[in-house]
Amino acid sequence: MDLSLALLRRGYHALAEERGRHDDADTFAARLLGRHALVLRGADGARVFYDTERVSRVGSVPPPLAGLIFGSGAMHGLDGREHDVRKHLFLDVLDDEAVERLVAVVAERLRDRLVESAGREVDLFALLVEVYGDSVLRWAGVPSHERQRSSLARQMAAIVDGFGGSPRAYARGWAARAHLDRWAGRLVAAQRRSGRTGDATPLARIASLPVPARTAGVELLNLLRPTVAVAWPATWAVVELLRDADLAAQVRGSAGELVRRRVAHEVRRVRPFVPALAGRARIAFTHDGLSVRPGDRLVLDVVGTDTDPAHWSAPDRFDPQRFTDAEPDAYAFVPQGGGCPRNGHRCPGEPLTVRIVEATLEEVGRYDLVSGDPELPDQPMTRMPRRPGPTGRLVLTAR
Ligand code: HEM
């Protein structure tokens, strides 16, 4: 079966099942979108995948998916200098100081919303979508009012929710994409017309990219939308507190800082978001005894790498302690891509993601948590991106 179909039908399990048919080999040959493909797992596979001499991203993700999730013409599908100009701007816009400013906005907004919600049932995921959306829009300097920010945040979440093969979610995602692309393109055009060239907001800096307004709008959304997407790992992280009272106690207060970081890593490892990443061979080469020709597809098995038994002991167990002595390895841990963000496609928003999850655990950790329906099941492994069940009706009580 073509891997695209397997992924749509079997979700996060798809590549493990295909690998099972190849004696659990780290590398195996398959077909993706009608072409020969190599599926790569583990740190060695990730090193190949992130070798820009051998692997290109141009045309690696088909437009029906790339257009929805990244937007048309986004940096995700670019190589070389064109990619690097945009990527370096993103890394500058998301430098440590800017990340801390945004995290402070998130923490303050979240604190207010949790105070308002205490004692009542809340849908934590929906609340986080609104809080992160509101915060990132204000931080980015996007002129807007509060109700508009809530609506924009929900539309950004709809785009993210649409990538995984649920036909209804996919249609909702495209409706949101069409609307948000127009909105962001107009915003960039207005920013350019304003002539405020000294303006240093993230909006102004992205508007200054030497690309058409619509493309700059797409990249602006690539800053805003994935910040809203942090609601997925953050909700999973809170579920771990709900399911483990000892862990809930450990993440509290200043003493919990290191534990919060470890939970932020572990939750991204075992609660996958992206199942796989795709590239195309630039040149002919051989890896693990299997060959590719130029144009063939390369698939990095993200789930398989993050749970590769060669690197992780008891890989399926949620165990934040595994990060006690070291930060994750750049190639063995790839929930947001691997290698070096400056020279490749690794996610530039990874430090921000970690900090937002940490801040969320700190704020939510001020409360005792009870699920209004502890039996609410997690979404199945075929549903991408997958969400947990019991936070749908969460009651928070001040401690
Ligand atoms: C739920 C949290 C997030 C997840 C799971 C995630 C995951 C990823 C993955 C898997 C990639 C592709 C890596 C590759 O192609 O090699 C990526 C790229 C990217 N991410 Fe994230 N990300 C998240 C949050 C963020 C945030 C918060 C931002 C920005 C504020 C961001 C901006 C980007 C951009 C611009 C790229 C394209 C990088 C490039 O092509 O060079 N992401 N992300």
What does this structure look like?
The model has no long low-confidence stretch (mean pLDDT 96). The chain has 16 helices and 10 strands. A 5-stranded mixed sheet has the order 1-2-8-5-3. Strands 4-10-9 form a 3-stranded antiparallel sheet. The chain has a two-stranded antiparallel sheet with strand order 6-7. The chain has one domain: Cytochrome p450 (Orthogonal Bundle). The protein has 399 residues and is an alpha+beta fold. Helix content is 51%, strand content 11%. Bound molecules: protoporphyrin IX containing FE. The site of protoporphyrin IX containing FE (HEM) has 26 residues, from helix 5, helix 11, helix 12 and helix 16.
Q: How large is the count of helical segments?
A: 16
Into which percent range does the helicity of residues fall?
40-55%
Sheet-strand content, in percent, reads 5-15%
Please give the oligomerization state of what you see: single chain
Low-confidence stretches: none
Sheet/helix structural class: alpha+beta
- Can you give the mean pLDDT? 96
Assigned CATH architecture? Orthogonal Bundle
- What small molecules are bound in this structure? protoporphyrin IX containing FE
Q: How many β-strand runs?
A: 10
Strand order of the largest sheet: 1-2-8-5-3
